[in-house]
Amino acid sequence: MSDDYQRVAAAIRFLVDNALEQPALEQVAEHVGLSPFHFQRLFQRWAGVSPKRFLQFLTAAHAKQLLRESYSILEASFAAGLSGPGRLHDLLITAEAVTPGEYKSGGAGLTIRYGVHASPFGQCLIGVTDRGICRFEFVDDGMSQALERLQFAWPEADVSEAMAETRAIVERIFSRAPEGGPEGFQLLLRGSNFQLKVWQALLQIPEGKITSYGHLAKQLSAPGASRAVGTAVGQNPIAYLIPCHRVLRQTGELGGYRWGVERKQAILGREWLVAETGFAQG
């Protein structure tokens, strides 16, 4: 599955870089080293639509349209204290912060079980505690570096491998269970008060919708703090579940992403497709 994602990511990068030429299926397939038949099957299985259709969801014009449409939905979600109708949030993601004492102690007395697993968007590392998921990141630079980042974030915690337990959780995260499915995910967060406020705000953005850094700052009653909000978004320790990928620049450009712009494009593209067509990868 991870190798499939790497080919899909390379295809997305090629499609975006050559969007004006509208490359044919054969050109994209040759770029990723597959026959047109096998590439079409891979991409269709991964995205549910053709590469050309997928490209339409990655254009700046579509992003700008979504930005315009997202504001009222985002505002309503904040006002209601709800995450919106997104399928991911039908699973009722909730978060709690460590206490000031726990923050200061760096996780002393906490046990973290971790594992590295394949996902639709490449290899990922997850760290879980009895109080919830405390770490989730996509891994492109090797397991040892990802593990070092986990241990740096929780320096005094007891960290041990638990592949079977964490594999089941990763499978649940990407299962897209229907409404009324499994119980929700609990997150355990360690950050400054401002970071926690931003991460909680990200959970209010419905799947299939996006917002800008400036508008997110406005929602947090800090209209002049777009840069600080962007920094906190980039420091999000729990990828995908806390959807920092749904924040774009005001222009509609993707902007940066801690786990790679191609991955951000891929996640947003799949979410938009689910919202538009009802397609969901099993």
Query: What's the pLDDT, averaged over the residues?
Result: 85
Instruction: Tell me the span between the first and last alpha carbons.
Output: 13 Å
Strand order of the largest sheet: 4-3-2-5
Strand content: 5-15%
Kindly report the oligomeric state of this protein.
single chain
Radius of gyration: 19 Å
Number of E-type strands: 8
Low-confidence stretches: 83-91, 178-182
Second CATH tier, the architecture of the largest domain: Orthogonal Bundle
Structural class: alpha/beta
Tally of DSSP helical segments: 12
- How do the helices and strands follow one another from N- to C-terminus? HHHHHEHEEEHEHEHEHHEH
The top level CATH class name of the largest domain: Mainly Alpha
Q: Sum up the overall morphology in one term.
A: globular
CATH topology of the largest domain, by name, is: Arc Repressor Mutant, subunit A
Superfamily at the CATH H level of the largest domain? Winged helix-like DNA-binding domain superfamily/Winged helix DNA-binding domain
Please estimate the helix content. Answer: 40-55%
